[in-house]
Amino acid sequence: xxxxxxxxxxxxxxxxxxxxxxxxxxxxxxxxxxxxxxxxxxxxxxxxxxxxxxxxxxxxxxxxxxxxxxxxxxxxxxxxxxxxxxxxxxxxxxxxxxxxxxxxxxxxxxxxxxxxxxxxxxxxxxxxxxxxxxxxxxxxxxxxxxxxxxxxxxxxxxxxxxxxxxxxxxxxxxxxxxxxxxxxxxxxxxxxxxxxxxxxxxxxxxxxxxxxxxxxxxxxxxxxxxxxxxxxxxxxxxxxxxxxxxxxxxxxxxxxxxxxxxxxxxxxxxxxxxxxxxxxxxxxxxxxxxxxxxxxxxxxxxxxxxxxxxxxxxxxxxxxxxxxxxxxxxxxxxxxxxxxx
Length: 341
Hints:
Elements: E1 4-5, E2 13-14, H1 16-19, H2 23-26, H3 42-56, E3 63-71, E4 77-85, E5 93-99, H4 108-118, E6 127-131, H5 147-156, E7 160-161, E8 167-168, H6 170-185, E9 189-199, H7 203-212, E10 217-223, H8 236-248, H9 253-258, E11 261-267, H10 275-287, E12 291-297, H11 321-339
């Protein structure tokens, strides 16, 4: 059974409506897919709205969004959110997935970032899908009780090893493939020009994509991504040889340009991502034929792209405006280079 998605009859609405909503409404639990909880609390919502509005005021383009339900090959329902320019979208446009944090897909921060990508003038406009890997329709991933989230996370990230010692997260791959299929089926999307962006937990599906050989997937960018040190069960020597051979091989400029490219934006003071996990991440991407680039910000902590982290009581998290701006600029530059006509 293949994954499936219905894109007919989506209920599109201006994303600007969300910017102007009262923070209390954004952070409230509505138990409704059409009005899910989108923030931890009012302070979180208001902080994102403030920065989003400041950005929107600097550009003319606007975007519209719509909830979209799709399912995996095994019938698991997923609840994404599609975003596209309000006008002027060309017939054949790039498609970009956004993979969410541990707060789930129903997140005002992700809707801000989706609009920013969808209205990028240098991409000529594109279609964005905030992908769901938790099956969260109402924003339950915001709950302070993390038991449900932890159970679902463990199920989705369960890994298996084949006879050759290669690890795969099969359930995660099914949810990724369903998201790719849903994005590709949206009107105007060129399935040969796809990219993906991941925040925090969203680093895991981005890494998994490198194992899946998805046709049309050209670029990935992660921000304070976690990778959980999932490594193929090979000897360290074989792992290092694989990277060394790939790096020592003589490649033409044109062949390198045709490779898919992964940009890892990392905070040097992020306690959730170890150096050995980044090395494992590099090995996996390179072994699967990806160009790999690390952009490191020495003083940045976890969650550095999100201004709402100013209200996070944990010292492990902090908004870093400079790191947020530089990493986002680098990611957009990558997407333009790899996806624009």
